């Protein structure tokens, strides 16, 4: 089995690493001359709109997947006319436009923050009157890791946000008074089988994920069931194949959907060391038409992202329960260059190991 991957970043790298034990050979398509995924698999260099490069990828693949959601939908559709593409291009189309995504959730009974389309200054003013401040103004397309958005708490911040972001399709979303941020990862096979991982609690800073705890502490069965139901509705509606992530807010004991990612997800990195089957292996199993693996958590895990900088790896490895994952990328501001997962058998042991790590290395996080 040969799997082509659109994108050669760290997610493509970890997909390729998970594919090797399954006997699956991967090739990434990426415009960079040396993407980090190319350190572990074959590489076709080319832009995602370059049809000659897409043809080369198709020639060495039995199925194609992708590692990020800003792949041009037209390119995914072109490939889908020649070989299977999973997740389907329709999932890309939904996830690439925040207004389409929020409407998709709402129409399927999945709770969201209040929202309104903003194309003109008149739309913006009307949306603020309707939704009220505080709110978040976001670009409808190409925003990630906190980019392309502004928090509005005052009229002055609203004016500044419009001056910065106005002139392109936008969406205004009401600020959600959430207790915590969660995510649910689910996988659907070619045969329609669905498996859902335990909910993960996430901490962000400056718009980027810093820490994930799984299974999420203080988790009740009702929240897990609601998350599973949300995921199953999306997976089934889109005839989805592969791993899907939905980012959620916990509000008053209920879950509110923020956004979805039609791919493996940063908040699921803990599954490499903390689940029977990682999200990367299950994604590969799904797109290759293989049976899905167990999504059961093995003990309790915490994942810390390394962004822009990292603690001394040798010192981290002195912690016997630490699992380091280095992406083969040069450090750079706001760049994800690796992560470490701390494993434990109990929640109490997990919390003690987190305190130990944070005392020693938090200055680098």
TrEMBL record:
It is an enzyme of class 6 (ligase). Residues 102-288 form the ATP-grasp domain. GO terms for molecular function: 5-(carboxyamino)imidazole ribonucleotide synthase activity; ATP binding; metal ion binding; phosphoribosylaminoimidazole carboxylase activity. ATP binds at residues 98, 138, 143-149, 173-176, 181, 204, 258-259. Pfam families: ATP-grasp, PurK_C, RS_preATP-grasp-like. It comes from the Bacteria. Keywords: ATP-binding, Ligase, Nucleotide-binding, Purine biosynthesis. It catalyses: 5-amino-1-(5-phospho-beta-D-ribosyl)imidazole + hydrogencarbonate + ATP = 5-carboxyamino-1-(5-phospho-D-ribosyl)imidazole + ADP + phosphate + 2 H(+). The keyword Heme does not apply. One of its GO terms (cellular component) is cytosol. HAMAP family: PurK (MF_01928). Homodimer. This is N5-carboxyaminoimidazole ribonucleotide synthase. It comes from Limnoglobus roseus. The lineage of its organism: Bacteria, Pseudomonadati, Planctomycetota, Planctomycetia, Gemmatales.
């Amino acid at each position: 089995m040969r799997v082509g991957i659109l994108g050669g970043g760290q997610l493509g790298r970890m997909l390729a690493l998970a594919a090797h034990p399954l006997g699956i050979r991967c090739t990434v398509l990426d415009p960079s001359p040396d993407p980090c995924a190319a350190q572990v698999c074959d590489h076709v260099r080319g832009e995602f709109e370059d049809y000659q490069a897409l043809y080369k990828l198709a020639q060495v693949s039995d199925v194609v997947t992708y590692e990020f959601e800003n792949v041009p939908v037209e390119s995914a559709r072109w490939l889908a006319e020649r070989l299977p593409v999973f997740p389907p291009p329709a999932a890309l189309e939904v996830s690439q436009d925040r207004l389409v995504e929020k409407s998709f959730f709402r129409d399927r009974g999945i709770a969201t923050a209040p929202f309104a389309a903003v194309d003109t200054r008149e739309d913006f003013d009307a949306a603020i009157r309707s939704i009220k401040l505080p709110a978040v103004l976001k670009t409808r397309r190409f925003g990630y890791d906190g980019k392309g958005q502004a928090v509005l708490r005052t009229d002055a911040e609203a004016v500044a946000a419009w001056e910065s972001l106005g002139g392109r399709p936008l969406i205004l979303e009401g600020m959600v008074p959430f207790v915590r941020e969660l995510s649910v990862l689910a996988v659907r096979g070619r045969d329609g089988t669905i498996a859902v991982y335990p909910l993960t609690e996430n901490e962000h800073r400056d718009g980027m994920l810093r820490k994930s705890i799984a299974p999420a502490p203080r988790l009740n069965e009702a929240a897990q069931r609601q998350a599973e139901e949300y995921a199953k509705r999306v997976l089934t509606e889109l005839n989805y194949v592969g791993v899907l992530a939905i980012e959620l807010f916990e509000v008053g004991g209920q879950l509110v959907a923020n956004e979805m990612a039609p791919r493996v997800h940063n908040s699921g990195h803990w599954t490499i060391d903390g689940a029977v089957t990682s999200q990367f292996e299950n994604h590969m199993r799904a797109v290759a038409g293989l049976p899905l693996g167990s999504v059961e958590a093995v003990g309790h895990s915490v994942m810390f992202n390394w962004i822009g900088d990292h603690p001394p790896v040798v010192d981290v490895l002195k912690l016997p329960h630490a699992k380091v994952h280095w992406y083969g990328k040069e450090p750079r501001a706001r760049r994800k260059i690796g992560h470490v997962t701390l494993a434990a058998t109990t929640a109490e042991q997990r919390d003690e190991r987190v305190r130990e790590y944070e005392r020693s290395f938090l200055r680098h996080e």
